[in-house]
Write a structure and sequence with these properties.
The chain is mainly alpha-helical. 82% of the residues lie in helices and 0% in strands. This is DUF2798 domain-containing protein. It holds the Pfam family DUF2798.
Length: 163
């Protein structure tokens, strides 16, 4: 053994997908899903005026900071609960159930954050109307995204995140 060999540090061998790639994939998914849903909700709250882009971006920022971490935790909890309750169903059916439940939960929370950001709480009736209108308008988009995600993307994403 030479002195050089003992002094040269060796890096551990990279196993699996780098964490940075996993973070980038998750962030791109969150921004795409959150961006499309908050765009619809912001439109329902304020319309396409001069303030739309600013309101949409601030709503998106709040959703990414507040909702997405909660959504990741909720997805894990809902997936576990559905697996316990629906033991006789196959994985695809359970994934569909998870997708539907998550669409309703996440959309109602996103509509709340978006209405709070765009309308505020000073007029309860306007806030409630803004929340409901945003939720209902974005629901078809959210259901479509969540069903596609849970049926096709989620299983692949889970394998990717474990790699």
């Amino acid at each position: 053994m030479t002195i050089q060999a003992t002094l040269t540090p060796t890096l551990p061998e990279q196993k699996g997908t780098p964490v940075l790639y996993k973070i980038l994939v998750m962030m791109s998914l969150m921004l795409t899903i959150g961006g499309s849903l908050t765009a619809v909700m912001t439109y329902m709250n304020v319309g396409f005026g001069e303030a739309f882009i600013g309101n949409w971006l601030s709503s998106l920022a709040l959703v990414v900071v507040i909702m997405m971490p909660m959504g990741a935790v909720m997805m894990a909890l809902v997936t576990k609960a559905v697996a316990r309750v629906f033991t006789t169903y196959g994985e695809k059916v359970r994934n569909l159930i998870v997708g539907l439940i998550m669409a309703f939960i996440m959309e109602s929370m996103m509509a709340f954050v978006t209405a709070a950001n765009n309308i505020g709480f000073s007029d309860t009736s306007a806030f409630t109307s803004g929340w409901f209108n945003g939720f209902i308008a974005a629901l078809p988009v959210g259901l479509t995204i969540m069903v596609v995600m849970s049926m096709t993307v989620k299983p692949k994403l889970e394998r990717f995140m474990k790699s």
